[in-house]
Amino acid sequence: MSHRSASLQQQQQQQQQQQPARRPRKPVEGPAEAQPQIEHQGLHAVCFSFAVPLPQFGERPWPKVPGKMASTPAYLLMLWPLVLLLLSDLAASIEFPEGYNRTTLPQPPEFSEQPEKELVVFPTDEVTVRCQASGNPPVEFHWTKDGKEFNPNEVPGMTQRKGSGTIVITTNNGNVATKFKGVYRCYATNSLGTAMSYESRIIAESAPQWPKEKVAPITVEEGTHTILPCNPPISAVPPKIYWLNSRIEHIVQDERVTIGQDGNLYFANVQMTDSRPDYICNAHFQGPRVIIQKEPIELKVTTTNTLSHKKPMRIMPEKRQTTYVAKLGESLVLECIVAGLPTPSVEWVHKNRLNVYPNVVFENAKKTLRILNVTDDDDGEYECIATNDHGKIVLTYTVNVEAAPYWIKKPVSQIYAPGESVRLDCEVEGKPKPEVSWRINGIPLEDVMPEKRRKVQPGALIINEVEPNDTAVIQCEAHNKHGSLLANAYILVLQLPAQILTPGGLEYSVVENQAAVLDCMAFGVPRPTVKWITDDKYVLDDIRSFLFTNGTLLLEQVQRQDAGNFTCIADNDVYEDSITARLIVKGATTFEVGPVNTEKKEGETVTFHCKVLFDETIPEHGIKWRRNGKVIQESDENEKYFINDTSLMITNLDYSDQGIYSCLAWTALDSVEKSAKLVVYGKPGPVSNLELLRQQDHQVKLTWTPGDDHNRDIEEYTVFCEESKFKPGKLEELATIPGNQPWAILPLSPFRNYTFYVQSRNNQGKSELSKASANHVTKPAAPDQNPADVRGEGNETTNMIITWTPFLPWEWNAPSLKYHVQWRQENEDQWNETEVEAPPVVVTGTPVFTPYEIKVQARNEFGKGPEPSIELGYSGEDVPEAIPENLAVEVLNSTTIKLSWILPNREKIFGHLKGFQVYFFWLGTMADRSRRQARAHTHSHGKVLIEGDVSEIILGGFRPWSRYRVQMSVLNGRGEGPHSEAIEFGTPEGVPSRPESLHMEFLSNTTVTLEWTPPRFPNGKLLRYVLAYQQANQTSNQTNMGFVSGITIPATQLMFNVSDLDPYTPYNFYLSAETREGSGEAYVLQEHAIRESVNLSLVNITLGDVRENSTTIFWTTRHNQRDVEFAIHIMSKTDKENWQDVGRVTSSQGSYLIPDLEPGKQYRVRLVKEHRTGDLQVIWESEMSTAGSVHESFRSFAAQGWFVGFVSAIVLLVLVLVLLCFIKRSKGGKYSVKDKEDTQVDSEARPMKDETFGEYRSLESDNEEKPFTSSQPSLNGDIKALGSDDSLADYGGSVDVQFNEDGSFIGQYSGQKGKEGGGNDSSGATSPTNVVTALE
């Protein structure tokens, strides 16, 4: 056994003696089936040397304080290190748990300081070569110089510090610095191994000085280039060069004058001002901290009469193509110093890149390119391009990037247990490829005794099944021509007794259904085996349990019965340790009510509810509300949130309030959280970014960015425009776009100035209007349409007026517009034409009612409108002479007829047939037998306008059992033609109207008398009256209770007594009249209560003594009117007050005291009975005066008020009279000529006297219209009913018309149109409908 191995065993024995006493490993008592499972033992056998601290998880971190539980999912992350171990080929080194005392463990040497790789020593320097390391046992140091061992303390001027490997070199005591130069290396050794430092090269230099030399003046011709040499002394640390003059002023550098990297001063071209005798080169050596200067150089510039310009030429570098080696991570300088006149400018190009600037600094007016930190990307060719007015020169630089060795994976010191396999990685890169060598304790691996367990692989050293004597310091060294790398890493192989670092007696509190984690941080080498026991049972037998590699026990789904003591036992090959912990199980926190997802409208209020059940034995608990993970705080200044024990209320919701709201219920042991999503919806936000893209001259594409839809889909966009040229300030809707399309193609009108706006809409409403788009101006263009409503009509028999609807200015499409009008008679070839700026065009000398073809085209300075269509017009009309013939009446029923006719002489219409005027005359009823009686009624008449070319009409609303006379005339646009011959017809009987009135008188509590008047329209011969009655207020299933019907009364009888009625009961009475055609409408008399309708009658009503303030009324009640309620009213005649109700009594009381009267006043008093009908029955009324006198102040006041009112009335009357006189004088005797003319026209146009009879009225009296005369032509062809506004639609060849009973007209056209509508002149009749117009 080597000395180093023996020392290692001694250190381990010392450590074991220092450990606290542990009881020997014993078999665990208990049933055989309770032993730990083989799977768990195997797991520990594989991972016995792995120590992993338990991870943190969730909001409540893994507690460092013993006894606190982590959240349930935390244990899942603990398995990750175990998975990594199982995937690894070699065992990892020992990781010591937190809190383990490592100060007593053995440790091989480990450097904390190493010597610098290069040191420069000057004669007066004191140089420190550092070497410091630690280890247990303490380390010893020794040095080698140039590969040979030496003792620094034996070298004069060199001292090694005590307890350290650091050497101090002193050269100011006469020692020659050159004797210290060489390559040094420090070694640190203890019984566990030897560490080796970097090699340190010491360079010895003497004090720098300039050799004595005679500097000759330099003479150059103006415009040429020159170089002032510096040539400083050579040093391991290059000096910094400055060029000064004798006054210690810097020589100015610019594009023309430059200091090169070699220290020389370069002139691209010299000028006369450059002549001077004192160019001095100064070299600053930073090592010895001295500045030396060269002898001054004189520069003489001579003038020339033939100063010629020169193209650029190279000065530095000396070759046109130069190769440089750049070291990775260091700096690189490229120089490009050129001469020329004028002074050339310099640019750099990297052929492998678009530009050279990312990691580059330019100096000396771009003549120096400095790469600060060389990377692989800097490799390649660079070009320096120097140009002036006379040419250019290109210098090429090839840069090869190489690198000193650098680490890819560096070996790391580790501690292992016996029997493990060790892998030390040493991966390096460099350019050229570095060579890698291994050493053990500073000895090259090839010089160490071979070992089969040890092998070298590319980038790694592997030792299998290590033993304690394998403890050593391993060195990995790599080098190439640019440098070297060295790393020390020790392998420490040892054994440690089992030890539980977790204190015993801890209590762990957890809530049920969660996972409990009981700590048992066990450590030892080899890894101890850990077992948990409770109630003499192995815990790992429970499928809910899981044991981690560090000894921690996980018990899932903890229940109340799991509470108790748990014992953790850890042992390895020699030692055993144990602790006991207590598990306490509490009730879990649960939600009774939690927040739910909610959608609310902007501005509303929302309330989230949260009701939680806590285990009250856990003292610390509470509720927190969070929004998007952040706690909500209630503040007096903030009225947004209101929080109480079970709810969160958010008021005045805004869109920024939406998010995830959660109720977090927490205790010291657990926490639960329930979340809900709040969505705030409302009207959409405004759209933005309106942009216009021209597609054609009069079409644009408008795009926009949609606004926030505020959680409701956009249904549509509305595009508005403002046209500022013709309609400034007015928005017009231009287009409606689907909500999924944020653009619109808009057709535009010419000659406009548009601005666009967009508004979005969802189901909550419309957004604000967007900001205005940019203005868009459209070019003028030819008209794109022609005028509408082109018509030709004459207002005289010899002309035709051509009219149309003129364009509005914004329809012109240009600044001006004209109309090209053409006309000709139908079937002619030649067009007549004119051009005007506005309608109308009057064509004279035309035949009566002749058809003309008309065209109107819009034109402007940019062109014509489309080819216009031909419209048909007519010259002026004349009064018609055509007369309807063969009038025939077919009586359909008692109120409806069908009237038919023919119009044979159509050529005499002389215009557009507008329709027919029908005149009706009521001749009386069928009972009026004599012609004298019939003629007495001819003043009752009416007329009906029938529009269109029809040949029959159905008329309704006639009186049954009556005689009528009918005539017709033709209407055109000019007027009305002659009347046709009259014909007469009669209507059959019909059902009568209801009785005109029905009254009831009460004879007793059970008997009433009914009186009535006959129907206003009997519509035939009355046969009888029919009476029915029943009790009022019957329910739906009592409708026929007490119903009496079928009481017939002769037609000549107008009253009837009804008896045997129930007292105090309201009744409904129904009375109707009958003819041969049946019963008419019944008159209904409703809800008259028998008792209340009987008038109250009292006997012996008297006033008692009238005192100053009261009196008493006395009366006697009739035997059949007891308990009837009535009221007592009084009125002060003195104060002229209204009646006041002072009390209500019943008839059985017999007396009433009237209180609160005033002395000395006159009163009226009365007894009043109010019936259900609302009528008041005054039973008795009288006057009285109270005793005493009225106060004087009251009389004075009353008199004064009367006087003031009287005077005011007189003054007002005088003012009214004066105003009337003024108006009369101003008006004079003027009258309206228009009224007079209208009166004359009316008298001429009215066909007969305007009279009425019965309930019928004359249409002429309701709405008088003037008939058309020759002086009043119609240009538009419209015509109203003569004497009536009521007209019938132009529906075809026949018309249905009805007359209501009140004289109104009801009609319906049927069949086909006549000439203008195209079709036949006759058709069958249809049923009449109630279209109201006037008759009579």
Please report which band the strand proportion falls in: under 5%, 5-15%, 15-25%, 25-35%, 35-45% or over 45%.
35-45%
**Distance from first to last alpha carbon:** 150 Å
What characterizes the major β-sheet? 6 strands, mixed
Which ranges are low-confidence, i.e. pLDDT below 50, for 5 or more consecutive residues? 1-91, 930-938, 1192-1199, 1228-1336
Mean pLDDT: 80
Q: Over all CA atoms, what is the radius of gyration?
A: 64 Å
Structural class: mainly beta
Helix content: under 10%
Query: What is the subunit organization of this protein?
Result: single chain
Strand segment count:
100
Q: Number of DSSP helices?
A: 8
The outline comes out as elongated
Structural notes for this entry:
A hairpin with a 3-residue loop joins strand 57 (659-667) and strand 58. It is built from 8 helices and 100 strands. It is elongated and about 170 Å long. Strands 1, 40, 43, 44, 47 and 48 form a 6-stranded mixed sheet that branches. Strands 3, 6, 7, 10, 11 and 12 form a 6-stranded mixed sheet that branches. By secondary structure, it is mostly beta strands. The model is unreliable at 1-91, 930-938, 1192-1199 and 1228-1336 (pLDDT under 50).
